[in-house]
Design goal:
Distance between the termini: 59 Å
Number of domains: 3
Radius of gyration: 23 Å
Organism: Devosia insulae DS-56
Pfam families: HTH_1 (PF00126), LysR_substrate (PF03466)
CATH superfamily of the largest domain: Periplasmic binding protein-like II
Largest sheet: 5 strands, mixed
Shape: globular
Strand content: 15-25%
CATH topology of the largest domain: D-Maltodextrin-Binding Protein, domain 2
Structural class: alpha/beta
Protein name: LysR family transcriptional regulator
Number of helices: 11
Strand order of the largest sheet: 4-3-5-12-6
GO biological process, one term: DNA-templated transcription
Family: Belongs to the LysR transcriptional regulatory family.
Length: 295
């Protein structure tokens, strides 16, 4: 196991549970991962994974030992990277940032333009992903999240409260009562999203006339007049093709917007600059996030 790439391959497949998922995580194609894994198993003389129905790859005892060792090596390598990177005082280089699709679609891009104007030597790579990427594994340097960081090795700052409300096209008319009205909802497989849970508890299934697992698509469908949608106010209030329906924000859906990095990186010049410019810029939009300012 002298090749670190072999360890990374085993760890990626073990985490994904499939060969294809491991290949995607490493940025290689399926056939390359298949060939590399077979070569590694032949070289070691052991099976690292049991091939199960449905394309599932389950670690053997030997495979589990290799994956555990690979994770330890990865943890040490990431810690070294953060320690060295945390001393970087250059305002040049790359900065990997992750945010949700709705934030990237609306108010974030304007702040990134301000950051680019102030620091043209820094290249921002924006990863639009609704998953919580690992800052410890350097999947991102900075994350904009709607949850307060709980991990002790993370450093964050609250930027605003995020309110959600019901929106619809002007052609749908006023919404005095949601009973019997058509709504846009989430796919049946979506779990763990407060707005999806609220719709499931509040709106009868027969009145969910359209479903999408993308909030931006729900936003677009609402503009088209398909039905009412529950959207964050920073998205709905700035769209002239939508009007806020009902009495106001849905209080139980209120969330917090945080800017977060790893504690080892908080003194890095690029990270500090991003916190100052983009973080302060988003704080200045707090009335839009909280639903107290409409377009």
């Amino acid at each position: 196991m002298e090749n670190w790439n072999d360890l990374k391959l085993v760890l990626a497949i073990a985490r994904a549970g499939t060969l294809g998922g491991g290949a995607t995580a490493l940025g290689v194609n399926h056939s390359t991962a298949f060939r590399r894994l077979n070569t590694l198993e032949e070289k070691l003389g052991v099976r690292l994974f049991e091939r199960l129905p449905g394309g599932v790859y389950q670690t053997t005892t030997e495979g589990e030992r290799v994956a555990t060792t690979a994770e330890r090596v990865e943890t040490e390598a990431d810690a070294l990277s953060r320690e060295v990177g945390g001393r970087d005082q250059r305002l040049t280089g790359a900065l990997r940032v992750t945010s949700s699709e709705t934030l990237a679609y609306s108010v974030l891009t304007e702040q990134l333009a301000r950051f680019r104007e102030a620091h043209p030597g820094i290249v921002v790579e924006l990863v639009v992903d609704n998953r919580v990427l690992s800052l410890s594994r350097r999947e991102a340097d900075i994350a904009l999240r709607v949850t307060r960081p709980k991990e002790p090795d993370l450093f964050g700052r609250k930027l605003a409260d995020i309110a959600w409300a019901i929106y619809g096209a002007p052609s749908l008319g006023p919404l005095d009562d949601i009973a019997g009205r058509d709504f846009i909802g989430w796919g049946a497989e979506v779990t763990g999203i407060a707005a999806a849970d609220w719709l499931g508890e509040t709106i009868e299934p027969r009145h969910i006339v359209y479903r999408a697992n993308s909030l931006i698509n729900q936003f677009t469908a609402a503009k088209a007049g398909i039905g009412y949608a529950v959207l964050p106010c920073y998205l709905g209030d700035i769209e002239p093709g939508l009007v806020r329906a009902g009495a106001g924000p849905v209080i139980e859906l209120t969330r917090e917007l945080w800017i977060v990095t790893h504690a080892d990186l908080k003194k890095t010049a690029r990270v500090r600059a991003f916190f100052d410019i983009v973080g302060d810029g988003l704080v200045a939009q707090s009335s839009l996030f909280s639903g107290h300012r409409t377009a």
